[in-house]
Amino acid sequence: MPLLEVNNLEVCFGLRSGAVKALRDVSFTLERGERLGVVGESGAGKSVLGFSIINLLSRPGHISAGNVNFEGKDLASLAPEELRSIRGNRISMIFQDPMMTLNPVLTIGVQMVECLQAHRQISTSDAKRIALKRLQQVQIPSAEKRLDQYPHELSGGMRQRIVIAIGLLLDPDIIIADEPTTALDVTIQAEIMDLMLNLCEQNNVALILITHDLGVVSQVTQRMLVMYAGRIIEQGPTKEIINDAQHPYTQGLMNALPQMAIPGQKLNQIKGTMPPLQNIPTGCSFNPRCEYVMDICTKKLPPFTQSGNCLVACHMVADSQHGPQQEKLRSEEV
Question: Where is the ABC transporter domain (predicted)?
Fold first, then answer.
């Protein structure tokens, strides 16, 4: 049984103009110790997926269909007290901006001790000892001194390391990292990602890395999901997707990387923009931007097609997979 299993997940936001689906029919699994990347443009539903896994959606957002099973338990149906025992304890989340995570009026030590004591029967001295050990694990210099400092006294890179240390405090089974390096400069980004990778490997922690950076995904994750307009459109082994993307949208993301452009010429880009959730096109939601669009793309939602070790929601891929078989059947009939 997978550690985490998401089945046909649907998330809606109730607006005055009517319900808007932010996630549609999202399904995937996560094994213990596995590293999974979630990529896509802003507005694709990546962060909503992270929040919905631990049922941290704010009203009017809610899970309207499907389930999120953690070790066989549906997190969406748990009582608040039981969910709190898992959220932050067995499953922790690292957010984009550490200053939104850390309390500005409490010292780092107080915040880490409170986190430990909220989930464990533990003395303050033992909690401080564990907190100090975690800060040392994330390579914070003068770790003991940092326990008595406030978030504003630390650099952005140090604050993000502290957030990672808090995420690891209770030995979670899963860490959901939502754009953990967005607010950091490039050199610090590489250090933080190397640190997270090493810590996950050492502690056998599963990682869900939400990002728009395909370069980071290719180096850190083993499998990846590509999202567009609230739906997964391609998923499979990271190396296979990076080396041979099947969906036109994934191909567009790959071609938009700076290293794919000819020096001195404009960067490649996907024409158009992602549709608003209130106005998702009929059929394949990518069809207004797709250079390979066919008539069926504007009428019918593409089902998932197996391509190698990947699943791809694209009519063009489905035709290429089924075409030879159909020709064979027709020749046999003749």
Answer: 4-254
* Mean per-residue pLDDT, 302-330: 76
* Interatomic CA distance for residues 269 and 246, integer angstroms: 17
Query: Among 252, 217, 253, which Cα is nearest to 236's?
Result: 217
Q: Is the dihedral of CA 162, 184, 220, 48 positive or negative?
A: positive
Distance CA 2, CA 19 (A): 32
Are 307 and 323 contacting, i.e. CB atoms less than 8 angstroms apart? no
Q: Contact at 8 Å (CB) between 210 and 49?
A: yes
- The residue assigned the tokens 């029967």 is 121
Provide the token pair at 155: 């650099």
pTM of the model: 0.90
Distance (Å, whole) CA 30 – CA 165: 22
Q: If we measure between CA atoms, which residue out of 239, 246, 243, 234 comes closest to residue 321? A: 246
Q: How does DSSP classify residue 277?
A: G
Name the residue with tokens 């936001």.
13
Per the CB < 8 A criterion, the answer to whether 57 and 11 are in contact is: yes
The residues near 287 (Cβ < 8 Å, ≥ 6 apart) are: 281, 293, 297, 298
Q: Are 247 and 234 in contact (CB under 8 A)?
A: yes
How many whole angstroms from its chain centre is CA 291? Answer: 27
195 and 138 Cβ atoms separated by less than 8 Å: yes
Angle at 98 between CA 24 and CA 87, to 5 degrees: 55
Q: Give how far Cα 306 sits from Cα of 125, 251, 312, Å.
A: 54, 17, 6
Percent of the chain with pLDDT over 70: 96
Q: CA-based angle 295:297:299, to the nearest 5?
A: 80
How many Å apart are CA 29 and CA 42, to the nearest integer? 23
**Quick check: 325 pLDDT over 50?**
no
Task: Pick the closest to residue 152 from 190, 195, 103 (CA basis).
Answer: 103
DSSP codes, 72-94: TEEGGGS-HHHHHHHBTTTEEEE
CB–CB of 256/268 below 8 Å? yes
Q: Rounded to an integer, what is the distance from CA 1 to the centroid of its chain? A: 21
Asked if 223 and 217 touch (Cβ cutoff 8 Å), the reply is no
